[in-house]
């Protein structure tokens, strides 16, 4: 086996929206004080009640009153929470212009690793990964119920989403054979192993801080909340929950690359930071303000992170994993060449429906498949030029081998799905699918289409093997030893 074609879980240790943050070195007493001032001690006012059109649940009304009382929102606020098809969302209270700021949330209402450091559990969370510290914080505050200053926020968080991490075994059986299934299982395994560690090292030894049972399901809930709601790519804030702003839903129709959120100073004379959310498009009163979560994510990533998919074909992707086998007699040389060209023993290629193969994939494949009489290219005198040679067909045998390996891998991957593309299309056309089944059908159909696309590319290549120009011919041409018709010119003594 010269190339491996394996399922490729996304690296669960660095979940996309949970980029690791450095653990703060010291606790902030100022923060503790700020948080105390949030403590709910008086009855909530009756101001800024939500209108009944979209009838948000009582918990949302209470949350809204809390934010009104704390001065985060005023009667002029451009949006309000409402019940929408995506769960809760932000509904425009008046017409909103493109790029208009719709919400600003001061730092004291953010939940991030600093919040944890300044809390009662800060002293036991010091060495934890940022997301684990915040997850423990969320779980603990939730379990504290009425004793938590964050209860009005926690009460509006959903019990789960349609992310595949929350699917039952029966629901998961609908994505049998998909990369999404293997990624989901990988992520769940990762969360479980992190839970076991934190239970042993933090929760169990500090019963006074965690005087209630904490189960794996609690941890999975917190992980899913962070994965679907934490804002990233912010100035110095890679993992932060912003209450209220995190009610913003995703729209597939918004395709602007610009971020709709930023962190800015509260004003000339204030050192406070604000999280500021803008509407990327103009919105009419009563409509939902939405943003684009991430243009780069595949449907499988959207399904895992948020629990929805899109119908755009570019969201369908498949990750091809290729590997230089350790048992390859030229392992060392091949690895050296791969590393000099920015790759390694294993290389991952994300292939997107309707798009060409990634540029480095074929040269890497040719390198992995190099053997026999082609192995001279691995000699050190070629080290500086070998990648250039690999960008063009090396030999018929090498090219044929890469076609065979990839086609066999596609066929094997395709045989792992329990439905055909046609069956999936029929189900989708029939409509009325339950949300999770609709995600399952969309992802498995998309993956199969990408696999068919890859197979098609190499099938076509197989048919061209006799017409391709290989290394030896190019070399003879360079030396002026091949005539116009491809005939070899011999030197004939006169
Ligand atoms: C940041 S939260 C947005 C608020 C959320 N709707 C709620 O009720 O709390 C992200 C979650 O909202 C839901 N969501 C957002 N946009 C969606 C969409 N276009 N289609 C379906 N669900 C969506 C998903 O459950 C996702 O995990």
TrEMBL record:
Location(s) in or outside the cell: Plastid, Chloroplast
Which Gene Ontology BP terms does the record give?
A: methylation
- Spell out the InterPro entries in the cross-references: Rubisco_LSMT_MeTrfase_plant, Rubisco_LSMT_subst-bd, Rubisco_LSMT_subst-bd_sf, SET_dom, SET_dom_sf, SET_RBCMT, SETD3_SETD6_MTase
Ranges annotated as biased composition (Basic residues): 23-32
Q: Where is the SET domain?
A: 70-294
The record's annotation in Gene3D superfamilies points to:
Rubisco LSMT, substrate-binding domain (3.90.1420.10), set domain protein methyltransferase, domain 1 (3.90.1410.10)
Region annotation Disordered: where it falls in the sequence? 1-32
What domain of life does the UniProt record list for this protein's source?
Eukaryota
Q: Name one GO molecular function term.
A: [ribulose-bisphosphate carboxylase]-lysine N-methyltransferase activity
| Positions with a binding annotation for substrate | 229, 233, 246, 261, 293, 306
- Compositional bias segments (type: Low complexity): 9-22
> Mind telling me which GO cellular component terms the entry cites?
chloroplast
Indicate which residues the UniProt annotation says bind S-adenosyl-L-methionine: 86-88, 229, 249-250
Q: What UniProt keywords apply to this chain's record, in alphabetical order?
A: Chloroplast, Methyltransferase, Plastid, S-adenosyl-L-methionine, Transferase, Transit peptide
Give the protein family.
Answer: Belongs to the class V-like SAM-binding methyltransferase superfamily. Plant protein-lysine LSMT methyltransferase family.
Per its UniProt record, what PANTHER family does this chain match? Answer: [FRUCTOSE-BISPHOSPHATE ALDOLASE]-LYSINE N-METHYLTRANSFERASE, CHLOROPLASTIC (PTHR13271:SF113), UNCHARACTERIZED PUTATIVE METHYLTRANSFERASE (PTHR13271)
What is the name of the protein in this document?
Answer: Ribulose-1,5 bisphosphate carboxylase/oxygenase large subunit N-methyltransferase
Name the species this protein comes from. Answer: Actinidia chinensis var. chinensis
